[in-house]
Amino acid sequence: MSWLYFAVSIWGAWFTWNALHPIREHPRMASLSFVAGWLTSELPLHHIAWQLLATLVFASAGAFEAWPGRLGLLLSFASWAGLVAVFQRAHEAEPAVERALREGLGEDYASELGSARGEQALGTVDWMRVLRPFPIRRPEVEVHKDILFARERGIDLKLDVYRNRARASAAPVLLQIHGGAWILGSKNEQALPLINQLASDGWVCVSTSYRLSPHATFPDHIVDCKRALAWIREHIADYGGDPDFVVVTGGSAGGHLAALLALTPNDPEYQPGFEAVDTRVRACVPFYGVMDFADRNGVYPNDGLRALLEKKVMKGSREEIPEDWDRASPIMRVRSDAPPFFVVHGDSDSLVPVEDARQFVRALREKAESPVAYAEIPGAQHAFEMFPSLRSLHVVNGVHRFLTWLLRERGAESA
Question: Which of 349, 350, 356, 392 is catalytic?
Fold first, then answer.
């Protein structure tokens, strides 16, 4: 029993160490580091709880009567101290987001939020959601599931609409694009904390699917996302949304597609058969997206992304189809009339290096005339905001403030 507890304590300590020191160098190890570090980074209190419970069970079985058990207990103490440090670092998300908003929107941006919406957007963290993150749904939010918006090469493309049961009219609209390395993922899984918070506040939120690789080849993915936007233009008023005020967001591959959609308004290449539809958006909030397929600045520590894109997504190397790789890279599509951006990326991301986001933001700020906010979240892994946690709720509140600030433009236009 002592040796078993020793093994369990090593296992728990490795999870803690990985959360503090994620692996990036090797593609498979980086993926493993992401899976383990993602849950540990966002649920450190829960990890302490299960490790403490396991320790009590082993103690009752006499695990500490021999030296391996006592050594394992020391490892557990060290692991718990590390998890406390992980939890403390999650608090740093709040000032990081606020600093980003002040830098991007101006020091006095909060005074422009307005009274009712501003107070809700500045809301504090709901600790019950932190301690009990599931289920994510909110009772005041209703969901219209699996609405067919297109059929491409035998594949039904569907989306979900989230809205407040109060059913306000002419509400601002959020289009969410899921991630999953362009080859997997679902509209049902990602950005649910953000979607539910905004829907609760009166937004109409649309979470869309798109064709996945290897069945799909770029630009199929972005074409499908623009088809979803075309559906919003035509139908969202039936759900209480304003078709003229649409913001796009997404994480990982979805962050890439959201940024590309925002930077290619009315591009006929990505709107075959619906070229006349207005595909401009009011703003873009990409989370940890891949912004440069070609990695021109050499920020990726391994060739995992390049291999994935060549074999599954682009179906050709950068040397074979360089123009396609450039057109697929948001950093190469930056333009002076780009909409406002709020870029969010974690500094502990083991799948998409934070340097990729930095380069993209630098390019945006050099050329774009609209505001660009950039929040680099301390200790955040890839996909950190998929469920409620202390860190993710701080970030969601910050995005809520950014979007509320945008609404002042619509108010001015209405006036």
Answer: 349
